[in-house]
Design a protein that fits this description.
alpha+beta; three-stranded antiparallel beta sheet
Amino acid sequence: MAVTMAEISKLRNLTSAGLMDCKKALAETNGDIEAAVEILRKKGQAVAAKREDRQAAEGCVIAKNEGNFAAVLALNCETDFVAKNAGFVELTNKILDAAIANRVADVEALKALEIDGRTVADLVVENTGKTGEKTEISSYEVVEAASTSSYTHFGNKLAVVVGFNQEVPYQVGREVAMQVASMNPVAVDRDHVPAATIESERSIAIEKTKDEQVKKAVEAALKKAGINPNLVDSEDHISSNIAKGWLTEEEAVKAREIIAATAEAKRANLPAQMIESIAQGRVNKFLKESCLMEQEFINDSKLTIGQYLDQTVKGLAAVDFKRVNLNQD
């Protein structure tokens, strides 16, 4: 039977599928709209299965908040062209709006959530069929607190949600969310930094401090022997400087002996308490730079975020945040 334009338009409105796909589905089902919808859904699933091994590294990231609930959603695809398509952005917003309205707690519950009679999981699969690109939810993060704020960076690749212990003025909450987007803290405060992270930073700080103490001792010994440390700080430099006539073979041999002997002696006699003290200072610096409440406020370097919030509303503090970024930090 002949397929009318009105039938094709109705099917497109229901499925958002392409014009020719709708025409073919209606022709195959003799104009049965429901059967045509099912065919297009199956087509989307078939395309999704074919593209399962493809990498969906592009996408759209959006954050929103409502009262004490905030969420950030990343819907991924394969190319930036599709990610910037109005329909793809609309789908991301549609899913996130439903998640906010239903206070969806996690990604599995989100996939099972129904929108207009279809699950979010089905909508994602159908979008794969529509665009021809693998589509997937790569991240869904939630913050629940006394009050919340959100920020979506221009371009929809980075978004943040933040929770506070009491009501936060809109602009203040937005500024703190922008701070998280810009400065990428590891935790809201020291109490929320994972113990493994602190231990890793401590180990790095100790080794760095030891290396510095050894380097100072070696440089002092070289200078005492009349050798410029900058000429012998690596084997490449030694070879290069010999070739240039800035260093003799004899000086190079002597320098290697001094470096080896001094380094060994210094490492065997490093003052443990001093090393620990310097390393702890470095860990404290890391925590100050990496904890949101201790970070220097990007809009006023005289204040930390904690001071800025307390100055705005007495006792106001950030208690949680989530940050999703599709690009490398």
